[in-house]
């Protein structure tokens, strides 16, 4: 009789252990699948965002290239005759400041 009771307790413990291990493994698999889906969605989102950024860079690069071409074409038209037509003239008296003179004026004015 005693052996039957022991066997019954052992079966009950095995059944309980089996259920607990099943729930533990099932919840582990469930958690890991959610983590996997999270990383998969983030990867897909980053790929799409990277493609959009690359398109934006391509558009900006073509805009910069066009602006450089416009600058070069406008730069070729700038010369001395254009400056004279706009009313600019060459300076007659050119003065340069000296470092010591600027320092003395700054000290005199309290700067």
Biggest sheet character: none
Count of the separate structural domains: 1
**What gyration radius follows from the Cα positions, in whole Å?**
42 Å
Distance separating the two termini? 110 Å
Stretches where pLDDT falls below 50 for ≥5 residues? Answer: none
Give the total of beta strands. 0
Order of helices and strands: HHH
Structural class: mainly alpha
Helix content: over 70%
Which strand-content bin applies to the residues?
Answer: under 5%
Instruction: Specify the overall morphology.
Output: elongated
Number of helices: 3
Mean pLDDT: 85
Please provide a written account of the structure:
With 111 residues, this protein is mainly α. Helices cover 83% and strands 0% of the residues. It has one domain. It has three helices and no strands. The longest helix is centred in the middle third of the chain and has 75 residues, at 2-76. The termini are far apart.
Question: Notable features of this structure?
Answer:
single chain; 111 residues; mainly alpha; 3 helices; elongated
Helices, strands, pairings?
Elements: H1 2-76, H2 80-85, H3 99-109
Briefly say what this structure is.
83% of the residues lie in helices and 0% in strands. It is mainly α. It has one domain (2-109).
